Amino acid sequence: MVLVIGGMAVDEAPNDSRNLFHAAPHLKEAAAHFSSMSPKIMPSQGLLYLHPREYAAVMPQDKYVTILGTDDCTTNLMIVLRHTGSGAFCLGCVDGADTVSGITPLIARIQELSLGYPEGRLELHLIGGFLDLRGFSERLVVYVLHAFQKEPVEVDLVLACVGDMNTIVRNELAWPIVYGIGVNVKTGEIFPATFPDKGPDMALRSTRQFTGNVQLMDLYDTSNGVLRVGPIHYPPSRGIELWLEQADDILVAHLSFAPEAELPNFPMKARSALKHIRDHPFPAITIFPDNRPRYFRKDEAGNWIQVRFC
Hints:
Helix content is 25%, strand content 26%. By secondary structure, the protein is α/β, with parallel strands linked by helices.
Protein backbone atom coordinates (compact mmCIF):
# COMPACT_ATOMS: atom_id res chain seq x y z
CA MET A 1 0.00 0.00 0.00
CA VAL A 2 2.38 2.66 -1.22
CA LEU A 3 0.29 4.69 -3.68
CA VAL A 4 -1.25 7.57 -1.71
CA ILE A 5 -4.36 9.34 -3.03
CA GLY A 6 -5.96 12.15 -1.06
CA GLY A 7 -3.73 11.46 1.93
CA MET A 8 -4.78 7.80 2.15
CA ALA A 9 -2.75 4.78 1.09
CA VAL A 10 -4.83 2.68 -1.31
CA ASP A 11 -5.07 -1.10 -1.15
CA GLU A 12 -5.24 -1.45 -4.93
CA ALA A 13 -4.45 0.89 -7.79
CA PRO A 14 -7.51 1.91 -9.86
CA ASN A 15 -8.22 -0.24 -12.92
CA ASP A 16 -9.26 2.72 -15.09
CA SER A 17 -9.10 6.50 -14.97
CA ARG A 18 -12.84 6.97 -14.47
CA ASN A 19 -12.72 4.92 -11.25
CA LEU A 20 -9.75 7.01 -10.16
CA PHE A 21 -11.65 10.28 -10.58
CA HIS A 22 -14.80 8.83 -9.00
CA ALA A 23 -12.82 7.84 -5.91
CA ALA A 24 -10.84 11.09 -5.80
CA PRO A 25 -12.92 14.08 -6.99
CA HIS A 26 -10.10 16.47 -6.02
CA LEU A 27 -7.95 14.87 -8.74
CA LYS A 28 -10.69 15.52 -11.28
CA GLU A 29 -10.84 19.18 -10.25
CA ALA A 30 -7.06 19.54 -10.45
CA ALA A 31 -7.01 17.91 -13.90
CA ALA A 32 -9.78 20.19 -15.17
CA HIS A 33 -7.81 23.23 -14.02
CA PHE A 34 -4.57 21.98 -15.57
CA SER A 35 -6.12 21.12 -18.93
CA SER A 36 -7.76 24.57 -19.10
CA MET A 37 -4.37 26.32 -19.05
CA SER A 38 -3.01 27.64 -22.34
CA PRO A 39 0.32 26.05 -23.34
CA LYS A 40 3.41 28.23 -23.08
CA ILE A 41 5.90 28.35 -25.94
CA MET A 42 9.25 27.86 -24.23
CA PRO A 43 12.66 29.08 -25.44
CA SER A 44 15.83 27.01 -25.44
CA GLN A 45 17.46 29.07 -22.67
CA GLY A 46 17.68 26.87 -19.57
CA LEU A 47 15.76 24.04 -21.25
CA LEU A 48 16.37 20.31 -20.98
CA TYR A 49 14.05 18.64 -23.50
CA LEU A 50 13.16 14.95 -23.24
CA HIS A 51 12.11 12.60 -26.01
CA PRO A 52 9.98 9.48 -25.43
CA ARG A 53 11.77 6.75 -23.47
CA GLU A 54 14.01 9.28 -21.72
CA TYR A 55 14.09 10.69 -18.20
CA ALA A 56 16.11 13.26 -16.29
CA ALA A 57 16.40 14.33 -12.67
CA VAL A 58 17.43 17.87 -11.75
CA MET A 59 18.10 19.71 -8.50
CA PRO A 60 16.77 23.28 -8.12
CA GLN A 61 20.35 24.48 -7.62
CA ASP A 62 21.33 23.37 -11.15
CA LYS A 63 22.95 26.36 -12.87
CA TYR A 64 22.31 25.11 -16.43
CA VAL A 65 18.73 23.81 -16.37
CA THR A 66 15.66 25.77 -15.32
CA ILE A 67 12.99 23.97 -17.36
CA LEU A 68 12.42 20.26 -17.89
CA GLY A 69 10.09 19.68 -20.82
CA THR A 70 8.60 17.33 -23.37
CA ASP A 71 5.82 17.59 -25.95
CA ASP A 72 4.33 16.00 -29.09
CA CYS A 73 2.72 13.42 -26.78
CA THR A 74 -0.47 11.79 -28.01
CA THR A 75 -0.74 8.44 -26.23
CA ASN A 76 2.52 8.94 -24.31
CA LEU A 77 2.35 9.47 -20.56
CA MET A 78 4.46 12.17 -18.90
CA ILE A 79 5.56 11.28 -15.37
CA VAL A 80 6.73 13.97 -12.96
CA LEU A 81 8.19 13.11 -9.55
CA ARG A 82 9.09 15.75 -6.97
CA HIS A 83 10.74 15.37 -3.58
CA THR A 84 9.22 18.03 -1.33
CA GLY A 85 12.29 18.14 0.93
CA SER A 86 15.12 18.57 -1.57
CA GLY A 87 13.02 20.14 -4.32
CA ALA A 88 14.45 17.65 -6.83
CA PHE A 89 12.36 16.95 -9.92
CA CYS A 90 12.39 13.95 -12.23
CA LEU A 91 10.55 13.93 -15.57
CA GLY A 92 10.09 10.83 -17.69
CA CYS A 93 8.13 10.11 -20.87
CA VAL A 94 6.83 6.55 -21.35
CA ASP A 95 5.13 5.31 -24.50
CA GLY A 96 4.26 1.71 -23.68
CA ALA A 97 3.98 -0.96 -21.02
CA ASP A 98 7.52 -2.14 -21.80
CA THR A 99 8.94 1.21 -20.67
CA VAL A 100 7.09 1.14 -17.34
CA SER A 101 9.99 -0.90 -15.94
CA GLY A 102 11.84 2.40 -15.95
CA ILE A 103 9.78 3.71 -13.04
CA THR A 104 12.06 2.10 -10.47
CA PRO A 105 15.17 3.95 -11.77
CA LEU A 106 13.20 7.23 -11.72
CA ILE A 107 12.42 6.79 -8.03
CA ALA A 108 15.94 5.62 -7.24
CA ARG A 109 17.44 8.63 -9.01
CA ILE A 110 15.34 11.22 -7.20
CA GLN A 111 15.98 9.49 -3.87
CA GLU A 112 19.71 9.54 -4.58
CA LEU A 113 19.60 13.29 -5.19
CA SER A 114 17.53 13.79 -2.02
CA LEU A 115 19.92 12.03 0.37
CA GLY A 116 20.56 14.22 3.37
CA TYR A 117 17.05 15.69 3.30
CA PRO A 118 15.25 13.73 6.05
CA GLU A 119 12.01 15.65 5.65
CA GLY A 120 9.85 15.44 2.55
CA ARG A 121 7.74 13.06 0.51
CA LEU A 122 7.48 12.00 -3.12
CA GLU A 123 4.75 13.67 -5.16
CA LEU A 124 3.56 12.20 -8.45
CA HIS A 125 2.01 14.00 -11.42
CA LEU A 126 0.68 11.99 -14.38
CA ILE A 127 -0.15 13.95 -17.52
CA GLY A 128 -0.95 12.87 -21.06
CA GLY A 129 -2.81 10.31 -23.08
CA PHE A 130 -6.51 10.48 -23.89
CA LEU A 131 -9.46 8.22 -24.72
CA ASP A 132 -7.99 7.01 -28.01
CA LEU A 133 -9.85 4.56 -30.24
CA ARG A 134 -7.53 1.64 -29.41
CA GLY A 135 -7.59 2.23 -25.66
CA PHE A 136 -3.81 2.40 -25.63
CA SER A 137 -3.55 5.45 -23.35
CA GLU A 138 -5.95 4.02 -20.80
CA ARG A 139 -4.01 0.77 -20.55
CA LEU A 140 -0.78 2.71 -20.13
CA VAL A 141 -2.22 4.79 -17.27
CA VAL A 142 -3.31 1.60 -15.50
CA TYR A 143 0.11 -0.01 -16.03
CA VAL A 144 1.82 3.03 -14.51
CA LEU A 145 -0.52 3.28 -11.52
CA HIS A 146 -0.04 -0.40 -10.73
CA ALA A 147 3.71 -0.07 -11.16
CA PHE A 148 3.84 2.71 -8.58
CA GLN A 149 1.58 0.68 -6.29
CA LYS A 150 4.25 -2.06 -6.22
CA GLU A 151 7.11 0.27 -5.30
CA PRO A 152 8.43 0.02 -1.70
CA VAL A 153 8.10 3.77 -1.05
CA GLU A 154 5.09 6.01 -0.56
CA VAL A 155 4.21 8.12 -3.58
CA ASP A 156 1.50 10.78 -3.27
CA LEU A 157 -0.53 11.18 -6.47
CA VAL A 158 -1.38 14.91 -6.64
CA LEU A 159 -2.28 15.35 -10.34
CA ALA A 160 -3.68 12.98 -12.95
CA CYS A 161 -4.53 14.86 -16.14
CA VAL A 162 -5.25 11.65 -18.07
CA GLY A 163 -8.06 9.75 -19.75
CA ASP A 164 -11.37 11.58 -19.96
CA MET A 165 -9.90 14.66 -18.24
CA ASN A 166 -7.36 15.08 -21.05
CA THR A 167 -9.78 14.43 -23.92
CA ILE A 168 -11.68 16.78 -26.17
CA VAL A 169 -14.02 15.67 -28.98
CA ARG A 170 -13.77 17.44 -32.34
CA ASN A 171 -15.61 16.25 -35.46
CA GLU A 172 -16.71 13.16 -33.51
CA LEU A 173 -13.09 12.17 -32.83
CA ALA A 174 -11.28 12.25 -29.49
CA TRP A 175 -8.11 14.34 -29.23
CA PRO A 176 -5.68 15.04 -26.38
CA ILE A 177 -5.93 18.45 -24.74
CA VAL A 178 -2.40 18.59 -23.30
CA TYR A 179 0.36 17.40 -25.64
CA GLY A 180 3.33 18.66 -23.65
CA ILE A 181 4.44 20.04 -20.31
CA GLY A 182 7.15 22.20 -18.78
CA VAL A 183 8.51 21.85 -15.25
CA ASN A 184 10.21 24.84 -13.66
CA VAL A 185 12.72 23.21 -11.33
CA LYS A 186 13.35 26.52 -9.53
CA THR A 187 9.76 27.47 -8.69
CA GLY A 188 8.08 24.03 -8.77
CA GLU A 189 5.55 25.16 -11.38
CA ILE A 190 4.22 22.53 -13.83
CA PHE A 191 2.33 23.78 -16.87
CA PRO A 192 1.25 22.85 -20.43
CA ALA A 193 3.97 23.79 -22.91
CA THR A 194 5.38 23.42 -26.40
CA PHE A 195 9.05 23.47 -27.39
CA PRO A 196 10.39 24.57 -30.79
CA ASP A 197 13.86 23.40 -29.70
CA LYS A 198 14.01 19.60 -29.24
CA GLY A 199 17.63 19.53 -28.11
CA PRO A 200 20.76 17.92 -29.57
CA ASP A 201 20.89 14.65 -31.54
CA MET A 202 17.15 14.76 -32.19
CA ALA A 203 17.17 12.18 -35.01
CA LEU A 204 19.52 9.84 -33.15
CA ARG A 205 17.46 9.94 -29.96
CA SER A 206 14.23 9.40 -31.93
CA THR A 207 15.56 6.14 -33.41
CA ARG A 208 14.87 4.42 -30.08
CA GLN A 209 11.13 4.60 -30.78
CA PHE A 210 11.52 2.55 -33.97
CA THR A 211 14.22 0.04 -33.03
CA GLY A 212 12.94 -1.79 -29.95
CA ASN A 213 14.97 0.22 -27.39
CA VAL A 214 12.29 0.21 -24.70
CA GLN A 215 14.42 0.96 -21.64
CA LEU A 216 14.21 4.50 -20.34
CA MET A 217 17.48 6.38 -20.88
CA ASP A 218 18.84 8.58 -18.07
CA LEU A 219 19.71 11.74 -19.99
CA TYR A 220 21.31 14.16 -17.55
CA ASP A 221 23.96 14.48 -14.86
CA THR A 222 22.76 17.39 -12.70
CA SER A 223 25.94 17.36 -10.60
CA ASN A 224 28.07 18.29 -13.61
CA GLY A 225 25.49 19.91 -15.89
CA VAL A 226 26.13 17.37 -18.63
CA LEU A 227 23.60 15.89 -21.06
CA ARG A 228 24.55 12.42 -22.26
CA VAL A 229 23.13 10.59 -25.27
CA GLY A 230 23.62 6.86 -25.61
CA PRO A 231 25.32 4.73 -26.41
CA ILE A 232 22.39 3.68 -28.61
CA HIS A 233 22.54 0.37 -30.45
CA TYR A 234 20.17 -1.25 -32.91
CA PRO A 235 20.45 -3.94 -35.59
CA PRO A 236 20.53 -2.91 -39.28
CA SER A 237 17.10 -2.83 -40.90
CA ARG A 238 16.48 -3.85 -44.50
CA GLY A 239 13.04 -2.28 -44.69
CA ILE A 240 14.00 1.35 -44.08
CA GLU A 241 14.04 2.41 -47.76
CA LEU A 242 10.58 0.95 -48.24
CA TRP A 243 9.26 2.97 -45.30
CA LEU A 244 10.91 6.14 -46.60
CA GLU A 245 9.17 5.69 -49.97
CA GLN A 246 5.73 5.76 -48.34
CA ALA A 247 3.44 8.78 -48.25
CA ASP A 248 3.04 10.69 -45.00
CA ASP A 249 -0.43 9.28 -44.31
CA ILE A 250 0.92 5.72 -44.56
CA LEU A 251 3.66 6.49 -42.02
CA VAL A 252 1.09 7.96 -39.64
CA ALA A 253 -1.32 5.06 -40.10
CA HIS A 254 1.28 2.37 -39.39
CA LEU A 255 3.79 4.00 -37.03
CA SER A 256 1.54 6.02 -34.70
CA PHE A 257 -0.41 4.51 -31.80
CA ALA A 258 -3.21 7.03 -32.41
CA PRO A 259 -3.16 8.07 -36.09
CA GLU A 260 -6.56 9.72 -35.83
CA ALA A 261 -5.15 12.34 -33.42
CA GLU A 262 -1.52 12.58 -34.47
CA LEU A 263 0.22 15.93 -34.78
CA PRO A 264 1.18 17.30 -38.22
CA ASN A 265 4.92 17.04 -37.53
CA PHE A 266 4.84 13.27 -36.91
CA PRO A 267 5.83 12.26 -40.48
CA MET A 268 8.79 14.66 -40.44
CA LYS A 269 10.07 13.29 -37.14
CA ALA A 270 9.56 9.69 -38.26
CA ARG A 271 11.40 10.27 -41.55
CA SER A 272 14.28 11.95 -39.73
CA ALA A 273 14.69 8.94 -37.41
CA LEU A 274 14.33 6.42 -40.27
CA LYS A 275 16.94 8.26 -42.38
CA HIS A 276 19.32 8.17 -39.43
CA ILE A 277 18.83 4.41 -39.11
CA ARG A 278 19.47 4.05 -42.84
CA ASP A 279 22.57 6.25 -42.83
CA HIS A 280 23.99 4.64 -39.68
CA PRO A 281 23.13 0.93 -39.84
CA PHE A 282 25.97 0.18 -37.42
CA PRO A 283 25.92 2.97 -34.78
CA ALA A 284 28.48 1.12 -32.67
CA ILE A 285 30.99 1.85 -35.46
CA THR A 286 29.93 5.23 -36.86
CA ILE A 287 28.54 7.02 -33.79
CA PHE A 288 29.73 5.21 -30.64
CA PRO A 289 33.05 3.62 -31.65
CA ASP A 290 34.32 3.67 -28.04
CA ASN A 291 30.91 2.68 -26.60
CA ARG A 292 30.71 5.94 -24.68
CA PRO A 293 27.87 8.49 -24.62
CA ARG A 294 27.94 11.71 -26.60
CA TYR A 295 28.20 14.57 -24.08
CA PHE A 296 26.73 18.07 -24.28
CA ARG A 297 26.79 21.14 -22.05
CA LYS A 298 24.98 24.50 -22.25
CA ASP A 299 26.98 27.45 -23.59
CA GLU A 300 26.44 31.08 -22.53
CA ALA A 301 23.68 31.49 -25.12
CA GLY A 302 21.78 28.53 -23.71
CA ASN A 303 22.57 26.13 -26.58
CA TRP A 304 23.79 22.56 -26.12
CA ILE A 305 27.31 22.12 -27.48
CA GLN A 306 29.14 18.80 -27.69
CA VAL A 307 32.02 18.42 -25.23
CA ARG A 308 34.51 15.80 -24.13
CA PHE A 309 33.70 14.51 -20.68
CA CYS A 310 35.57 11.83 -18.71
